Amino acid sequence: xxxxxxxxxxxxxxxxxxxxxxxxxxxxxxxxxxxxxxxxxxxxxxxxxxxxxxxxxxxxxxxxxxxxxxxxxxxxxxxxxxxxxxxxxxxxxxxxxxxxxxxxxxxxxxxxxxxxxxxxxxxxxxxxxxxxxxxxxxxxxxxxxxxxxxxxxxxxxxxxxxxxxxxxxxxxxxxxxxxxxxxxxxxxxxxxxxxxxxxxxxxxxxxxxxxxxxxxxxxxxxxxxxxxxxxxxxxxxxxxxxxxxxxxxxxxxxxxxxxxxxxxxxxxxxxxxxxxxxxxxxxxxxxxxxxxxxxxxxxxxxxxxxxxxxxxxxxxxxxxxxxxxxxxxxxxxxxxxxxxxxxxxxxxxxxxxxxxxxxxxxxxxxxxxxxxxxxxxxxxxxxxxxxxxxxxxxxxxxxxxxxxxxxxxxxxxxxxxxxxxxxxxxxxxxxxxxxxxxxxxxxxxxxxxxxxxxxxxxxxxxxxxxxxxxxxxxxxxxxxxxxxxxxxxxxxxxxxxxxxxxxxxxxxxxxxxxxxxxxxxxxxxxxxxxxxxxxxxxxxxxxxxxxxxxxxxxxxxxxxxxxxxxxxxxxxxxxxxxxxxxxxxxxxxxxxxxxxxxxxxxxxxxxxxxxxxxxxxxxxxxxxxxxxxxxxxxxxxxxxxxxxxxxxxxxxxxxxxxxxxxxxxxxxxxxxxxxxxxxxxxxxxxxxxxxxxxxxxxxxxxxxxxxxxxxxxxxxxxxxxxxxxxxxxxxxxxxxxxxxxxxxxxxxxxxxxxxxxxxxxxxxxxxxxxxxxxxxxxxxxxxxxxxxxxxxxxxxxxxxxxxxxxxxxxxxxxxxxxxxxxxxxxxxxxxxxxxxxxxxxxxxxxxxxxxxxxxxxxxxxxxxxxxxxxxxxxxxxxxxxxxxxxxxxxxxxxxxxxxxxxxxxxxxxxxxxxxxxxxxxxxxxxxxxxxxxxxxxxxxxxxxxxxxxxxxxxxxxxxxxxxxxxxxxxxxxxxxxxxxxxxxxxxxxxxxxxxxxxxxxxxxxxxxxxxxxxxxxxxxxxxxxxxxxxxxxxxxxxxxxxxxxxxxxxxxxxxxxxxxxxxxxxxxxxxxxxxxxxxxxxxxxxxxxxxxxxxxxxxxxxxxxxxxxxxxxxxxxxxxxxxxxxxxxxxxxxxxxxxxxxxxxxxxxxxxxxxxxxxxxxxxxxxxxxxxxxxxxxxxxxxxxxxxxxxxxxxxxxxxxxxxxxxxxxxxxxxxxxxxxxxxxxxxxxxxxxxxxxxxxxxxxxxxxxxxxxxxxxxxxxxxxxxxxxxxxxxxxxxxxxxxxxxxxxxxxxxxxxxxxxxxxxxxxxxxxxxxxxxxxxxxxxxxxxxxxxxxxxxxxxxxxxxxxxxxxxxxxxxxxxxxxxxxxxxxxxxxxxxxxxxxxxxxxxxxxxxxxxxxxxxxxxxxxxxxxxxxxxxxxxxxxxxxxxxxxxxxxxxxxxxxxxxxxxxxxxxxxxxxxxxxxxxxxxxxxxxxxxxxxxxxxxxxxxxxxxxxxxxxxxxxxxxxxxxxxxxxxxxxxxxxxxxxxxxxxxxxxxxxxxxxxxxxxxxxxxxxxxxxxxxxxxxxxxxxxxxxxxxxxxxxxxxxxxxxxxx
Length: 1595
Prior knowledge:
Blueprint (H helix, E strand, L loop, with lengths): L5 H13 L8 H14 L5 H13 L5 H16 L4 H18 L4 H17 L2 H17 L1 E4 L3 E6 L2 E7 L22 H5 L27 H15 L9 E15 L3 E12 L4 E5 L2 E6 L2 E7 L1 E5 L4 E10 L8 E8 L13 E4 L4 E3 L6 E5 L2 E3 L2 E3 L8 E7 L2 E8 L2 E3 L3 E13 L4 E13 L4 E6 L9 E3 L4 E4 L2 E5 L4 E5 L9 E5 L5 H6 L8 H12 L3 E3 H8 L3 H13 L3 E4 L4 E4 L1 H10 L9 E4 L7 E4 L4 E4 L5 E2 L7 E5 L4 E3 L5 E9 L2 E11 L4 E12 L2 H6 L7 E5 L6 E4 L17 E4 L3 E4 L14 E5 L2 E3 L11 E7 L6 E7 L5 E5 L6 E3 L4 E3 L3 E4 L2 E10 L2 E10 L4 E6 L1 E4 L11 E3 L2 E6 L4 E6 L5 E3 L4 E10 L2 E9 L3 E10 L3 E11 L9 E11 L4 E6 ...
Parallel strand pairs: 103-104
Antiparallel strand pairs: 1-2, 2-4, 3-4, 4-5, 5-6, 5-7, 6-9, 7-8, 8-10, 10-11, 11-12, 12-15, 13-14, 14-17, 15-16, 17-18, 18-20, 19-20, 20-21, 21-22, 21-23, 22-25, 23-24, 24-27, 25-26, 26-32, 27-31, 28-30, 29-30, 32-33, 33-36, 34-35, 35-37, 36-37, 37-38, 38-39, 39-40, 39-41, 40-43, 41-42, ...
Helix pairs in contact: 2-3, 3-5, 4-6, 5-7, 12-13, 17-21, 21-23
């Protein structure tokens, strides 16, 4: 329960702290209580406020009455339970601010306190809070309102307080009366977006609703009344002032936001403190637009001070830079963020109506209308929606004028979304107008662009009063500096036409569509009313009343008709004015007046459809494909040249091109259309074409015309379309259209409809002059006598030109019994001659040379005669030198070319030509000429078939060139031989054919049964012996045999001779150098190749194989080869392989295969490959001393072969010393073998090694060469993996690991084996002992091993790691440094030193070595070790199974103590039975100083000749021996025992150097060693209490 009360107690404590206490009524005590209350109530700046209040209270600034009134107010606030913060705090701030900041005195303070009293009594809640907050803020800081982004303050004038009427209205009563201004939109002013309308050009649906105009009043009076009423709509009543207010007189209201800083100056009003609403009167606002001053004078207005925004419904703006005079309107300000380019959208102003005159647009632009300002954007949309007028002048004369509800009047561009436009022409007597277009006028370029309206006026046309045309276009562009006005469409891809309609055009369908959804025909109603009222001007109300129609429906109808151009309509006054178009349509619909059908459509992909030249008033229309002048059965239409028509005044026009009238087609230029006369004057007429009825019907594709041309070169005429008062064709006059031509003409037959245009101008018919009418009826109008000229085919023929059955102009003519000579007498025609669309023709018999032909018709061209219907023909034998054979024909086709004097006779296989007495059958084209009979086709008999384009037939022989000859066999469809492109000589009596290839080197002779062809150039066919002898080209050309068997993939080979037996179908080729198979060459043993039927090549014995054929890397011999295809052969062949030592081994390859081979990072390659198998018993040495077993693969494109098998090294001569290991190498070069010796494994899975090891069984070193170790845990003294290579000159093998192989690298291992000396040399990382936790040796160096003698030697760099106390090792190093005898050694001269170092400290640090310039401890931390020897020469003793030193020991450093001395001493390294190291080291620094260290059985014994050093050793030495590691104090006898033993085992008992002696006592530091030792012994015997930790660690 107590936990549940905690929140309540906390709230109570906070409330108590915030609540006031009851204040004393005594003025002296009151101020004390007030100050205390501010502190306990946690008022902001309580102490400062209390002090200020006390100052005001005590400096006589307040009268006693005012003090008492303050006390009374405080009591009222107490009773009303108001809080210290904010109420008392704000109240006291008001007092302090009124006195100290505003210097209020006497009555001013009385008035303020009186207002406070009423506010406390009458106002509640947030209203009271606002009163205190706003009042205190103002009186304290001069700020009326402030938040993070906005501050409103006052300056100047006077301020007083008052309480008006009742309490302040509640929040929902705060806002004043709403006016139409609040719904006014600036969007189109700022963004320029179009607002789609449904009214006429100035209709009421465009913007704000307007009050209805009174009936039947003067439009000007109605307009003034409307404007006055409209203005009142935007001036609402001011809110009623009530509650506590602050009266501001003649003050400046300053607005400061993060976006703006501005002010209303010299204004007065009341600030209702309870709801923060300012109700003001007067004042002004000044700002700049693009650097030009603008000001607005205000009348009544109000606004909420909590927002940085206000509206003034009644203001007057002065803008001298733009406006001719100040104008009235509505002003609005709102602090907003500027746009991305710094543009502002406020302040804003809109005039009430269109009474502004803008003078800033330029001297040639006159504007009168509405005025709006939105930031820097100037517009023209007034609040009453009235239109504005704008005119552009030049030299004081108007170029165009426009009217719009809303212009955007920016500096360089004037634009309007919907504007009436009039462009003046013909000295302002005519104009080009449109009721509603999007307008854009550029003042700098003086370019006017009009774009179609996107709403209801999108299809409304321009009206051109000069040309009397309505022009429907989407875009008009005019640069006022030029006279050219261009019409176009917006999107040229859609190919929408620009359309021009005559002002007198009428469409009954369009007239009926005007009804729409109305119940009456609106146009008829309006015209009917105008006729009755005898006026074109009236109100919609009058029409509705007279016609008893709904006035709204009448208005809507007027709007629609206005868009169609029938009338003008004022959407505000509903005043209607009929246009002539309205009377025209109604009159035409009732058949009371004439009309026309003139419509011109322009389709231009480039977009420039029409251009109006204002200088000449000439309107040029482009893209006019067709232009009709009427629409009845006698249609008259034009197809203008270049699709261009020029319009003149009143629909007159000029054009050139083609003009169609009924069955006539006129072509020419300078055609002039006279609208009033309804006539076309063709002043320059080129041709008149006659179109027949039948051809006209088919003429949808293209009319085939019969043309009349001028005889003198000049021709003209006039075409009368119809009567001038019958343009519509509503009445029928059968004589129209009619054409008058005073000149004669010529009918030419050089036309495409006459024999497909085969004739030229020499074929024609003369006719006289003529007159034609009733062109639409198609009466026969031909039948002219004259002379026909045939272009010298026949002599001139006098006859009559008539209409032939095929409806072309022609004639019939019958020659006499002797016929009519043709082509100068080379032939004779004996029957009817005629002229039709099929050309000049004759029938019956035609004779030429010794031939006589019969056919139903022959067609004559200027250079030939043809027939496709020949029935029979004969050629008589003889003919002198021509030596014609006898021949006969049945059905045939013929072409006779008189100029070449040759007749071509075409026959087919159904009815072949028969030649010779044997009746050889010929099909194709036979050529008859004075030189003889020739043929182009196929000749067939029982033995052969010959096809040639150049056959020549003589008495008993024939010949041919480029011929194909097929020798027939007993199998149908499979000839014995086929020869193509041959020169043939065929002797019919001897039965002997000689033939040879026309093109040397081409395989033109085929043997289908053998499935081969050959390029042998000469052959002889003996029909009796049935053999074909083949001979090569004597000029040395290439002669080949080619297999045509599909499975042999284009197999071929060259040869010198050949013979084909037609009985056995076999080929015997001689002189064959090789057969290419894949990329290899198969060389026959004798140069002979036999091919049996079916393309089978017999087995080639003792053949050779060269692979590949180009580079011949591989030469195989003793082969038995079967050639299977161009890419395949089988069999076996032998290849000799030589290794690096030039030892030769035979490899027998088989499984030859030619296939695609994958290349790395390259495109694939096709190659021949084969495999050979090498058995273990073959003793195949891939490398000296390296045996190989496995597969060998040969690739023809590579000089070296691939090996995939196993290797075995035999360096020792004993094969048991090595094991087989896997080996795979592509393209192995025997002279440069690199065998990877990595972590190889034997076939049984055991790891194979290469290196030097110490056997745990025999304790002796042994070598491995990719073989198993004796025991897996044998010590690896040295191992290497890497590439095995062989140096033939040195007879030396080498294995180098990857690290050592890198360029410039010292790091890594390398092993060499020399065959001659049987010596193994190794260099790199060494492992002389099994390093343990407390003792180890890291070493690197070089060594040699002689496998046959057991000799091992090592030159080592050795780093000892021994667990010794730091004081001991420091003392040891210091002593050795002090006593070492230096000189004689040259560490920097050791060339192997960088290699040694790199394997311990890494390659990078080793490269810094620089020949000893840097000491080891400074070279790398890895060399800061217990003891580092830079030069130790070790030998192996088979007797002691140990490594022992030879010569001096090069000591580099002890930890960081640099020694760098070659010392006398002994070192012995071996391992015990457990494989752990046993190391003895004796160092003699000088004749008196020595150190002995011995590691054995996990213990390190140390003793020295120096007493101080021994003392240090003894102090840190361990006690008795234990299994745990320890450092022990040694004795001199230990040293002596080792030295004696070393000399006995390795030096034959001799001294290697002078042993050190005991130094004098003085040199030992002046103390008794024995005493020290006794003392130390006593200390050791004392038992120590507690636990002590022995300092251990690697040093």
